[in-house]
Amino acid sequence: MRLILAPMEGVMDHTMRDLLTRVGGYDRCVTEFVRVVDRRLPARVFYRACPELLTGGKTPAGTPVYVQLLGGDPDCMALNAQVLEQLAVPGIDLNFGCPSKTVNKSDGGSVLLREPERVHAIVKAVRAAVSPHIPVTAKIRLGFKDSSLLEDIALGVEAAGATELCIHARTKQHGYLPPAYWEEIGKIKPKLSLPVIANGEIWSAANARQAQAESGCTDLMLGRGALSFPDLARAIHAQHTRADYTPLAWAEVLPLVVEYASHLETRAPKYAASFVKQWFTYLRRQYPQADNLFQHIKRMPALDAIKPALHRG
């Protein structure tokens, strides 16, 4: 069983990847998407999205980080994949799942799921552009409005030579509303020979077990659940091996939030308060103490006021 940390736009930056992979249990991370439009991007763009490229393509805990590309032009996607190969990227992931209206209007993300042949062409172009030893993975949803094209999309991704396929068990129209339809993945997985990873609505070890049973997938990608439950990957592994496991207490999680805030203070001071509050919106699902603290800080406009509250707990 492999557990992969999802590429959550606006959330899963290199600081969060560092913190969560230090907590442990992850086999791989994927960056937030790098938008590809009509040109070869300079190396600095990829270093900004993935500073780990400067240290062997791994987080400080040693977890490999794949860089995710998003775009609708096969040739341009291939060109930028070649840049990533030159930067010694551990792997390249292709985004066909982002449901953002802004992204979709600019010919990227889940809007491409309406055209399985374009998804195939992009994967094929990227696969052909880089050396065989570099994994090329794809992340999709069940479809755009419905799952009627899922088989065509998935078989096309496989035929294009993708290394693996991750399927978020909702359509673009579903967005992030529960439930996740893991059984839809289960219908297509037997028709594929490449590894398939299930994603969506996995908040607990029990959810993980259900997702595996309904999708037929052993491997899972964790997103919002990992933010809510920082040691979720460890809990899932413990369940899988039938080992006893005690989840991290709030007193062990709060220092991670304090460290996150400190990084943001120097790296993104303008947005630091918003990013800290954003993490609390997830943590409060798992920890009542996080909800109590969130109620205290939610109207504080700046990190200067929030940090003392975090230290007081």
Report what the structure shows.
The chain has helices at residues 14-23, 43-49, 74-86, 101-105, 116-129, 150-159, 182-188, 205-215, 224-228, 232-241, 250-267, 272-286, 288-297, 303-312, and strands at residues 3-5, 28-35, 65-70, 92-96, 136-141, 164-168, 196-199, 219-222. Strands 1-2-3-4-5-6-7-8 form an 8-stranded parallel beta barrel, surrounded by 6 helices. The chain has 2 domains: 3-241, Aldolase class I (TIM Barrel); 250-312, Dihydrouridine synthase, C-terminal recognition domain (Bacteriocin As-48, Chain A, Up-down Bundle). The protein contains 14 helices and 8 strands. It is globular, with a radius of gyration of 19 Å. It has 313 residues and is of the alpha/beta class. Strand 5 (136-141), helix 6 (150-159) and strand 6 form a beta-alpha-beta unit.
Give the SSE map.
Elements: E1 3-5, H1 14-23, E2 28-35, H2 43-49, E3 65-70, H3 74-86, E4 92-96, H4 101-105, H5 116-129, E5 136-141, H6 150-159, E6 164-168, H7 182-188, E7 196-199, H8 205-215, E8 219-222, H9 224-228, H10 232-241, H11 250-267, H12 272-286, H13 288-297, H14 303-312
Parallel strand pairs: 1-2, 1-8, 2-3, 3-4, 4-5, 5-6, 6-7, 7-8
Please trace the helix and strand order, writing H or E for each element.
EHEHEHEHHEHEHEHEHHHHHH
Structural class: alpha/beta
- Fourth CATH level, the homologous superfamily of the largest domain: Aldolase class I
CATH class descriptor name of the largest domain: Alpha Beta
Query: What does the largest sheet look like?
Result: 8 strands, parallel, barrel
